[in-house]
Amino acid sequence: MDDLLALSARYIDEDIFEGPGSVNRINMSLSEVADGVGFIESFSNVVALDSGDGLVLFDTSLEMFGPSIVSSLRGWSTERVGTICYTHGHVDHVGGAQSFLNDAKELGHEAPAIVAHTGVAARFDRYELTNGYNGVINRRQFAAFGSAMLGDGEGKWGPKSWVRPQRMFDKRLSLSVGDLTLDLRHAKGETDDHMWGWIPEKRAVCAGDFVAWVFPNCGNPQKVQRYPAEWAAALREMIALEPELLLPAHGLPVGGKERVRRVLDDLATVLESLVAQTLERMNAGQTLDDCLHGVKAPAALMTRPYLRPVYDEPEFVVRNIWRLYGGWYDGNPSRLKPAPDAAVAREVAMLAGGAAELAERASALCDSDLRLACQLVEFAAQAAPSDAEVHAVRHAIYSKRRDSELSLMARGIYATAANESATRE
Description:
This protein is α/β, with parallel strands linked by helices.
């Protein structure tokens, strides 16, 4: 069993980054990180607390990992699972719940009570309404993870059934479970239904996705609104409690009051900086384009092992800030009621001398300006959607763009574009 607190301390204290897999590990192993505190490393971690009157869990990970997580838990404790707290309703946090219900039935235990914010139920309803769309976007975003995020293989995205919470709260809920106090607090962040837990007896924060050992997932280009200012405020609220143990839903646990404070403060600072810079430019009448190319995250923080943009990235967060405070109009009047993309592409191709000329110019720009190369080759493909040679260039350019990107979100979208053209070459 690894000493997870020693591992995270080395990364944080020495500012070491050994790749995303070194801090976000999927091994289903349970480590006891404090007396009566188990931490199971999975796609989404599961925190287990021994209350003296049953176990309390924060999150349940993905459906496919549920049986393995139950097995790891049972290697640590045979106590009944009395309470499950959903930090929010994302599939990788709630999908494994059925495995714990099955475990309770097999052991003759009463089914655990599931606690969550009121917004979780509405999220499940929305997922049912947009199941096909979620399947499409998760194929782009998580194709590398196979069936883990893509559903049941029969056209349905998500778990076979959403296990809904029985007890819900709006702002704050305090529960006494055995020897423990669960101080559950709602805050907007990655989602509008997010909560985090303060366990005063353990001086521990169960942070959910407010901490994930990656740049904050606050700008996902394919998902609904995220809330960077509120996210930062929640992190500040955690700091004020002076926690000594930080238990995130992704990444390693962190021990030591000063170390925990540093992680929380850095995460809050980078979000606050992006919000302040973007609003300053918006208030000065600048466009979204100005913001995207002018707002920069604090460079000194971006090298931290828990702030690397390997999943989301600052540019995407700026877009979300604009959407939150300014709506969807980006300040360019031609895009208020635009002509169809294909019509614009045909006109540009005609002016350039044809789609082949556009593709050739895109290829020439590949080494100097990949952003512009992508725009030009997209025009070429939209103007000549059946041209195999154009698609060969598009495939090459988006493959190069994919390989040049750090964030999983960007890589997934560019990989999908490259694969589309590969089938048409």
